Amino acid sequence: MIVEIGHFALALALGVAVIQTVVPLWGVARQDPVLASVGPAAAIACFLLVALAFGSLMFSYVASDFSVENVASNSHSAQPLIFKLTSVWGNHEGSMLLWVLILVLFGALVALSRRSLPARLRAGALAAQGSITVAFLAFTLLTSNPFRRLVPAPAEGQDLNPLLQDLGLAIHPPLLYVGYVGFSISYAFAVAALIDGRIDAVWARAVRPWTLLAWTFLTLGISMGSYWAYYELGWGGWWFWDPVENASLMPWIAGTALIHSTVVMEKRDALKVWTILLAILTFSLSLLGAFIVRSGVLTSVHSFATDPQRGLFILAILVFFVGGSLALFAWRAPLLRQGGLFAPISRESALVVNNLFLATACATVFVGTLYPLVLEMLTGDKISVGPPFFNATFVPVIVPLLLLLPIGQSLAWKRGDLLGAAQRAQFAFGFAVLVTIALLALTRGGPVLAPLGVGLGVFLVVSAFWDLGERVVARASGAAAIWSRARGLPRSIWGTAFAHAGVGVTVIGIAATAWSTEGIGFLKPGQSLTSGRYTFTLESLAPRSGPNFTEEVARFKIRSGEREMKPVESMKRMYTARAMPTTEAGIRSDGFSQAYVSLGEREADGSIAVRAYDKPLVLLIWIGSLIMAFGGALSLTDRRFRVAAPRRAASAATMPQPAE
Amino acid sequence: MLIWIIFAVMTGAAVLSVLWPLGRRQPPIFADTAGAASLYRAQVAEIERDLGRRLIGAAEAEAAKAEAARRLLRAAEVEAAPAGDSEPSLRRRRAASAIALSCVPLLALLVYGAYGSPSMPDQPLAARLKSDAAGQDFAIALARIEAHLAANPNDGKGWSVLAPVYLRQGRFEDAAKAFAAAIRLDGPTAERHAARGEALILAAGGVVTAGAREALAEAVKLDPANPRARFFLAIGQEQDGKIPEAIASLQALLAGAPADAPWRGPVAARLESLQGPADSAAAAIAKLPAQDQSAAIRGMVDSLAARLGEGGGTLAEWSRLIRSQSVLADRPAALKSLATARERLAADPDALAALAALAGELGLQEASR
């Protein structure tokens, strides 16, 4: 009965979402606050209903109720509890339900943030969000219903795709979905503003925290996904320019641009048209990502859903929301009034340049991802656009952006002093050059690009905090004064510094991959293989059985020079229900570097194929993205996002400011 | 019944939550001006702070403050008084309530009605494994035996129970392995060897392979009278083109058969088809090479399906059709026949139960509507 209650709750949510779309929109159009106030109530009701549905599906998974088709085809009674839970979203239908759950969760959050949002904007945004909810609920119910039943129920399920039976799956999709779906709020705000015809700094201030939130989660989601691919797929790569990865990277780049352009809009009321367009494009790219992954237009690890009917439905959703909002934009955008002025050399201009670079970078990824698909559709030719294309197009756009970043960061608003800004960046630049030269000397004969990349990263990290340090330290004396000045700076400034430093740390990690080495060999117990700084000795090779798999476990001793490191286990698993093998890489962290070993086929003579890697500084790639996300979160806690309520705002504005 | 009460309560709660704001006495207002004013005050304060930090020049700061002030004025201008006209507002509220009252339950019932299965209870695995009614739940009984054998792979008795089940379900390779295990662990019998031979033949698509022939020979060695082994050996002779030998073997088998043996019919039919006039359909099939033969058999099953498809059909006929289709490994067709049979025999609860048992036995699961 619980299954059916969940199913009915989902059907009810569809009805409520229709109300959430229609009534508040009518209220905004007729200037009727009562009708508009239906929006928040409906949004919260919708969330509760979808949460009930999600909970009941989760219950069926935990109870291994194989009379539910979705449970029967994606779980196994022998799975550990944690994987029974994650199996809920480890398949197409369940992940759509998770998507809808996050969508309505954001709707409910907007509904609850009464103090910080103008009522009319909120009603319009909730209506726009409601229409997205209707579309995805209908998609889930009509084409991907997770509550379909089986008669008679099989006695055992077919198990989850073994690649997905991993803690990475517990974390990666929900984070990614919060990111994707979070941008739906920026989109809904943009549509609401276009309908209402009023776009100003109030709008920018209202949108910014939501964009930041979505961006922060998307950063975490992409980075976790990348780490998961790194250790689960077993060939040591961390980014493959796979269309599915690109699908998440494009909204991330557009979202990054959006965060920067809303700053200008919030501060100067400028760049309105562009910001609105970006908000629309960012979510459109999220939808495009959903289309690419869900429609089955490509086949990769991620497309566990391939069904042309679903593809058409998603395409219709995509066309409606992208086309509709762009049409609305074309109609209403010319009515927008331009805001504040700024000189060609100023913080505002620097942010415009940032946006130009990011938009170009996004376009290169877009072309590289969609061109092969379109070509295959038109001519039937299958071509693959891989890392060489992206290295040749994406990197040359991003590197100048990163080089300019520290300068833009220290330019003044409205009219800046380029020379002064360059001077402020010169110490960091000099330091980075020194690091580069030292590395070049140390690694003579090695790849040249690696020291240059590390130098760029160091430049970014040092300059991110140099500016801040100058402001905190320059005119204060004593540790107490420095501390109080540091605390007095707005959190968003700290957030900026951390996010930019995080970019630098990631760049260092990426650059250092040029130094990684790979060793391949066939080992019998007792034999060893050397890769880079590490020597891997195969100690033992033995079978073992897990709850729903059997595995062959290879135990390796690792030595780095004279130093003995902790041993590591690498496995080849066979999941019995699907008769599908997976590799579980053995990874030992050594500072920020990692020793990585994975198993290949067993040979007739009893030896086993082993691939061993030395991955210097590889952890910095993900640590950097964690720092970026931390910066985003820090910005989110900035005081100014909490002052918008009229009464509290007044007191905040008159509060004594920290001594400048 | 209970579930419909729960659905009604849920629907009521959902509709009420949407109606509730419409029924409020004190209408909220679009109070944006205060928000805008506070924002611009905060903006001016921020410009001051930036100025203090030398993030903006003095002249630019003045200009920026002037811009902010102009925006504040504009925001105040744009803010029109909310349309508080009570009469149309009341009418709108009523219309909105009517939409909510009709749209929410209607959509929910429509969608759930199309896809839901309100009469199906939850079937958590733990409860199913425990329940005494497992006799009816064929898949669970099978799962229990399989689980038992996974834990005790040397239980010959278990294998000998499981093997014929696999054979009936059309899992011929599993059946052959299970019979082999039963022979190894529980001792060889003629019947087991013969059944293993049959499983191997069916797994090979009806061809009497060398392996199958060995198994059948073992069976005949243990019990020269074993009818199953003798029958399939005769089929083997037939496939080798030794028609007279095949006819002789079948005749001998039939001669020694008890009058009430259930397998008399098929043997006689086979014999007839071999002996019959050269132009008869069955004889023609028998003379065909193995692949064509199975195609011809498929054709006969199809014609039965077509005849039953036109209407009527007894439980026995339907069962035969479903079983044949399942044995021919044509699962979609078997599922379709099963669904049609359920419709045709809907009036007869006993027949429905028999069909459900058959579906369980053959491992035919279908998505419910």
Draw up the topology in text.
The complex is a heterodimer of chains A (660) and B (369).
Chain A: H1 2-29, H2 33-36, H3 38-62, H4 69-74, H5 81-87, H6 92-112, H7 119-143, E1 150-151, H8 167-196, H9 201-232, H10 243-268, H11 272-294, H12 308-332, H13 347-379, H14 387-409, H15 418-442, H16 449-473, H17 479-488, H18 491-512, E2 517-523, E3 528-531, E4 534-545, E5 549-560, E6 563-575, E7 580-584, E8 586-590, E9 593-602, E10 608-615, H19 619-636, H20 646-654
Antiparallel strand pairs in A: 2-10, 3-4, 4-5, 5-6, 6-7, 8-9, 9-10
Chain B: H1 2-19, H2 32-52, H3 58-78, H4 86-115, H5 125-130, H6 138-151, H7 156-169, H8 172-186, H9 190-203, H10 210-222, H11 227-239, H12 243-255, H13 264-275, H14 281-287, H15 290-309, H16 315-327, H17 331-344, H18 349-362, E1 366-367
Helix pairs in contact in B: 1-4, 2-3, 6-7, 7-8, 8-9, 9-10, 10-11, 11-12, 12-13, 13-14, 15-16, 16-17, 16-18
